[in-house]
């Protein structure tokens, strides 16, 4: 059955219920060997970024599989890489439901999930049980009740636990749904965080005998001066990649629509241009010294091409999958391959 036929059934459900139903159904199909029938396998389109060989440049963004419980099932959809999380040191329930909303007329989603996850130890167990041997990013954050002045401790705790299992680790300082988290994007706070993470990365490289790149995920709601300052710190601390962007607190394109005024981060089509503008600004400031991974509002192959044209080396999908289904992966890969 095609996703166009399934979507009305899923959209009749609460968004979070539909999310879990989709993942559990995909898991069942994967275990019976049928998950590959949901989408065509994309053509080969290899890229080397952060010293990692990617079979194609289209990945899954963090947030869809917070606990790394569905890695094998998601891998069957043809992603060039998968990013799981955000994970925190301790389990936490996140914000009260309802906390996930579709804004259908704008092809958008608003979420205020709040880093709901089962904790880093559970994620580690899940990753160790997965058969997937492709490129795996693990996205780390801080617990909601950890004071912002001690946030570094949470990131270091997660980094130590996931380091041996990750192809790269993403440091999420840009979710709008954890109080004061975006404060870590301020120059003084960010310099302290990046310095501590790079020092720990050096230590862990020696302990494990392998170098695991670090990526920083930033918000789209930054002004020009803030983006330039972040670019400078990425270069100063030799961060391996920057992911642009997380969700936005702006409501451009959804004002007046059902659920458009809900609190939380907005993703999907209204974010496309805002995210791409940040990608372009980072690419100009970094001049190839730090690769950019573009995410935000990729709803079709043309959107993926636009991100790459703006300076991204890789792209990631999430909300586009809600509206377009798993065939979006191959569409984006094949469109990018045709542009090489």
Question: Can you characterise this structure?
Answer:
This protein is α/β, with parallel strands linked by helices and 340 residues long. It has one domain (3-338): Aldolase class I (TIM Barrel, Alpha-Beta Barrel), CATH 3.20.20.70. 39% of the residues lie in helices and 17% in strands. The protein is built from 11 helices and 13 strands. The protein has helices spanning 3-11, 15-31, 71-75, 120-129, 151-162, 187-208, 224-236, 272-286, 301-310, 319-324, 327-338, and strands spanning 47-49, 52-54, 58-60, 81-87, 100-103, 108-111, 135-140, 168-172, 214-218, 241-244, 265-268, 292-295, 312-317. It has an 8-stranded parallel beta barrel with strand order 3-4-7-8-9-10-12-13, surrounded by 5 helices. α9 links the parallel β12 and β13. α9 packs across α11. The longest helix is centred in the middle third of the chain and has 22 residues, at 187-208. The protein is globular and about 50 Å long. The two termini are 32 Å apart. The model has no long low-confidence stretch (mean pLDDT 95).
Instruction: Round the Cα radius of gyration to an integer and report it.
Output: 18 Å
Strand content: 15-25%
Assembly level: single chain
Give the beta-strand count: 13
Nearest-integer average pLDDT:
95
